[in-house]
Write a structure and sequence with these properties.
Shape: elongated
Distance between the termini: 69 Å
Radius of gyration: 25 Å
Order of helices and strands: HEEEHHEEEEEEEHH
Largest sheet: 4 strands, mixed
Oligomer: single chain
Number of helices: 5
Number of strands: 10
Length: about 220
Amino acid sequence: MTGKMNAADNTNTNTDNENTATKTASNSTDYFISENKESYVTINGSAMKVGSPEFLKHLQSQYFVQKHSAMSKSQLNKAVATIDMQVQLLGETHTVWHRVGRVDDTIYIDLCNDQHEVVKITADEVEIVTDYPVKFARPANMKAIGRPNLEAGPEDLKRLEEYISFKTDGNDDAENPDVSEYFITLVAWLLGSLNTDGGYPLMFVTGEQGSSKSTASEIIKDLL
């Protein structure tokens, strides 16, 4: 009799654990499907692909908080299958962005910080927001970037000349003879990197030996 009771108890425990795992998988209500028909869930402001290492780690940690034990492989597989089916049946389709996203004429830059802040750029203003319509994925190797100075103006772009040497010869602009055409080219290229529709021109840094080409390349890379 004792053996039968233990078996029943184990069955009930396993069922309870499976229900907990499934409930843990279904806690988020922000489900969506990518344009590639992959299932995603937004967790802590980040779009996680269902089944990804980050998503599995999240499920396991949430389960541990509730049950004070680790999920079994079968429980984890069932939880993933449950939420994947839920997303595929109920989720809407959205584009998944990395670092830079766009909706109509508004550009969003993910700062990837703990506050889940995003820089919103329109033709009229630049602001930092925490409520935004785009879905950002944040891989484990994506680093946070600093908050921009919202008081900065176009003239502050000239500070690039403090770190990068630009040739000034060959400038035919009579109104701005001190502005290097190479400076203008670099600024235009940097702005072009925000073009979410693709079509990115290559940047070649040229100069004589000892002209800080490597340094300039590192600075440009850091800006991106």
